[in-house]
UniProtKB/TrEMBL annotation, chain A:
<dbReference type="InterPro" id="IPR033100">
    <property type="entry name" value="Rrp45"/>
</dbReference>
<dbReference type="InterPro" id="IPR020568">
    <property type="entry name" value="Ribosomal_Su5_D2-typ_SF"/>
</dbReference>
<dbReference type="GO" id="GO:0071028">
    <property type="term" value="P:nuclear mRNA surveillance"/>
</dbReference>
<dbReference type="InterPro" id="IPR015847">
    <property type="entry name" value="ExoRNase_PH_dom2"/>
</dbReference>
<dbReference type="GO" id="GO:0071038">
    <property type="term" value="P:TRAMP-dependent tRNA surveillance pathway"/>
</dbReference>
<dbReference type="InterPro" id="IPR027408">
    <property type="entry name" value="PNPase/RNase_PH_dom_sf"/>
</dbReference>
<feature type="domain" description="Exoribonuclease phosphorolytic">
    <location>
        <begin position="31"/>
        <end position="163"/>
    </location>
</feature>
<dbReference type="GO" id="GO:0000467">
    <property type="term" value="P:exonucleolytic trimming to generate mature 3'-end of 5.8S rRNA from tricistronic rRNA transcript (SSU-rRNA, 5.8S rRNA, LSU-rRNA)"/>
</dbReference>
<dbReference type="GO" id="GO:0034476">
    <property type="term" value="P:U5 snRNA 3'-end processing"/>
</dbReference>
UniProtKB/TrEMBL annotation, chain B:
<dbReference type="GO" id="GO:0000176">
    <property type="term" value="C:nuclear exosome (RNase complex)"/>
</dbReference>
<dbReference type="InterPro" id="IPR015847">
    <property type="entry name" value="ExoRNase_PH_dom2"/>
</dbReference>
<feature type="domain" description="Exoribonuclease phosphorolytic">
    <location>
        <begin position="3"/>
        <end position="133"/>
    </location>
</feature>
<keyword id="KW-0271">Exosome</keyword>
<dbReference type="GO" id="GO:0003723">
    <property type="term" value="F:RNA binding"/>
</dbReference>
<dbReference type="GO" id="GO:0034475">
    <property type="term" value="P:U4 snRNA 3'-end processing"/>
</dbReference>
<dbReference type="InterPro" id="IPR001247">
    <property type="entry name" value="ExoRNase_PH_dom1"/>
</dbReference>
<protein>
    <recommendedName>
        <fullName>Ribosomal RNA-processing protein 41</fullName>
    </recommendedName>
</protein>
<dbReference type="GO" id="GO:0000177">
    <property type="term" value="C:cytoplasmic exosome (RNase complex)"/>
</dbReference>
Amino acid sequence: MRPPSPSIPEKEFLFSALKESLRLDGRLPLEIRTPTFKFGEELGWVECSLGKTRVLAQVDGKMVKPQPERPFEGTITIVSEISPMASTEYEIGRPSDEEVTITRMLDKVLRRSDAVDKESLCILAGQRVWHIRLTLHFLADAGNLLDCACLAGIVALKHFRRPDVEVIGDEVTVHEPTERAPVPLAIHHTPFCFTFAFFPDATTPPVIDPSHLEQRLSAGLVSIALNAQKEICVLQKLGGVPLGTDDILRLVDVAVGKAKEMHNLVEVQLREDWAGRKVEVR
Amino acid sequence: MFELRSIDIDLGQQGQADGSAVITHGLTHVLVSVFGPREAKMRSQTMHDRANINVEVSVAAFSTGDRRKRSRGDKRILEFAATIKSTFEPVVQTGLYPRSQIDIFIQVVQQDGGLLQACINGTTLALMSAGIPMLDFVCAVSGGVHSTHPLLDLTTLEENDVPNVTIAVMPKTRKVSLVTMETRLHVDRFEEVFRVATEAAVVIHEEMKAAIMARSRTLIASMKTGSQQPGEMEE
């Protein structure tokens, strides 16, 4: 069921506030909600929240036979169905336009940008490879589900560690975590996604990380996924209000700065979590 | 490097469609037909203040090198259709036709890179030949970067190997209504190809405008002959 569109006073209030560069939640136009991460007991279990938007990501790996055309590569699948739990807007079985966009974007950001090295997932060529499955559970939607999901996904992949395996001849031995330390996935780069919202009035400045209401009332979204090394992985502006060339390039510059901050934040959080896991043996 | 492939446009009538266009960019061949504005098939889709745009894309199984059938529910095709829809929503003056629907059917016959650009350019032309009021043309072009050189209008082989960008420009204001890039590219390189592609879209605009003009001219000429008396024909 589509929820009723925001009321006229709500809409006018938001637009007039935005014109003065004020946002309803007190943020600056180009300020993101600081993400918080909650790491689970298990490795590869991360709950990421951007304000009230929450996404749970979980990674698991199992051994499978590789696809015959790519015997040296492991596979990664992303399961991301938005359940009605996130918001009443979503229905099971019938993907909305937004869901299609999120699913495709996740696929592009996490899988097609080669964030995870697939060849390192090979155990025995043509026989055994790792199949990494990333499952995303969308817990609550308070705007900008996409950025939150991308962030949760990449952090979960970085957090995950697979059991160590040993190959002698044709024999594959999997070592229990108690026996040998599990190994992290080989990750080439960490892309972060940033979404900007535009409004029908051209004088209103664009906002980053739109809230639910801002997203509903926006006249166009631009999503930029990039890593701290200033490489754009995905840039997507699908229709919406037309923008000048320089406007878009300015957004890219903003995203570059944000990606660096985000990269540091994620690294610190992961390190902290990892430090908390070490048990001293005396 | 900056050379575009040959563009061929046919705006002839196709069946019952109100407007149609066949466009080829090199070997990419797309057929677009537009119906409407007409009453919506599904009542639930009507909007009280503007027309609804419905886009359906089908890709022929024989259009690529390896024969592959894509179902209508394919996520990529759904995204493709949603992209085209949201590109044209702000350009078509939907406010003039409340409670109606404009159907855009896109049939991909042959693909050799630059599929999105062909679809967008074809849709612009088909909407125009259907006489649907629009704010401006929407001209799309793809670009890529080979090591450090920007390239334009990529073929499938090039698309597979180099980072590629598709942009759609509204030539009158030089504003960009669509940008998509799905491969890794450094920010500085991106800026370069982005600027080159914006220029190229203007060139494509000339081609499209010429085709529309030629079509209108033949239509006007045939209208004249129809209204003339038999004796006047010789003049």
